[in-house]
Amino acid sequence: MIKITQLTLQNYSAWDDYVKCHPNSTPYHLAAYSLTTSQAYSLTSVNLIAKQNNDVVGILPICILKSLTLRKGFYSLPYCDAGACLANNNEIAQLLISKGKELLKLHNIKLWEYRDCANIDEIDILKKDFIQTGKVRMILPLPASCEGLFNNFSAKLRNQIRKAKKNELSVTINSPPCIQEFYYVYCRNMKALGSPPHSLTWFETLKENYKTDINVVVIKRHKKPIAAGIQLFSGNNCSIPWAASLRKYNHLNANMLLYWSLLELAIDSQCTNFDFGRSTFGENTYRFKKQWGALPLALNWQTWDSEVIIDSEITNTQYFKTIKATSMVRVTLAKLWTLLPLFITILLGNRIRKYLSL
């Protein structure tokens, strides 16, 4: 018999052990991510764990987030690309989801944003929904050695990495001031992109909770941070949720050295998959990630409505069409954001970022 309960502190270790062994897991599925949302942003989690004969057979992370309009929603998960159910089979997954929908009603919450993704063995399969929406995670299957990966790159990419190494750039990993140095680059990059940054507390808490499952890499020129990235691990899987570089130093190829350093660390940690994160098919970020050899894995984000629990599922295509319909507003707000002084963008970001689920 399968028993489904809410995650408690006593089950954290069993939860993480299951996540790290599941082929479709992400670092966001680890208990450290829920702890970070709770400690940094005071969000509530109602994570579900399924057991059979005292063995974990499935998990479902759920975070309760309040939007800027003060409407609460379930998210699996916020601030990341994929955080849906992991289970031994589809039957167990459906039991967990059904239990989640019961909790949706119990908490008097209407909507649940469920960020699912194709199975890892479906990588590079161009499904109909994928072609229509173009929203994917870019995954690079890693070889056993850094030399093998480097030799598979194009001559242009290898030259860009070599050039970066000749430009008096240094690489630091998990140094004492690494989070502050990362944040220096990150906030400036987010301002240029027209997007509110996460708080410094978010990243400090993330570093503390992920312990040995996180790397913070900083590229410097004359001791000044000019590119930086955060790398999270889950078993053999590695994700890069945040990476940034200062545009005025693009000619030094600091960003190329950053990603090469992150890839080296992933291979040294015996990872088999390197997740470059979400992209839109054919756009600049997609092409940047593809040049490293990354392949698309289709995203399948859905929204469920507790008031119409059977017929309310919104397909991936419909979901991203809804986002696209508001894109003009987003573009306008982004342009205005770039005009604000840096300290204002940081101050406002600290206040509003927790309410933005993407």
What structural category arises from helix and sheet content?
A: alpha+beta
> Which segments are poorly predicted (pLDDT under 50) over 5 or more consecutive residues?
309-315
CATH C-level label of one domain: Alpha Beta
Helical residue percent band: 40-55%
Q: What average pLDDT do the residues reach?
A: 91
Tell me the CATH superfamily of one domain.
Gcn5-related N-acetyltransferase (GNAT)
Strand order of the largest sheet: 2-5-6-8-15-9-14-13-12-11-10
Distance between the termini: 37 Å
Number of strands: 15
Which radius of gyration do the C-alpha atoms yield? 20 Å
* CATH topology type of one domain: Aminopeptidase
Q: Could you give a short account of the major beta sheet?
A: 11 strands, mixed
CATH architecture descriptor of one domain: 3-Layer(aba) Sandwich
DSSP strand content: 25-35%
Secondary-structure element string? EHHEEEEEEHEHEHHEHHEEEHEHEHHH
Shape: globular
Q: How many helices? A: 13
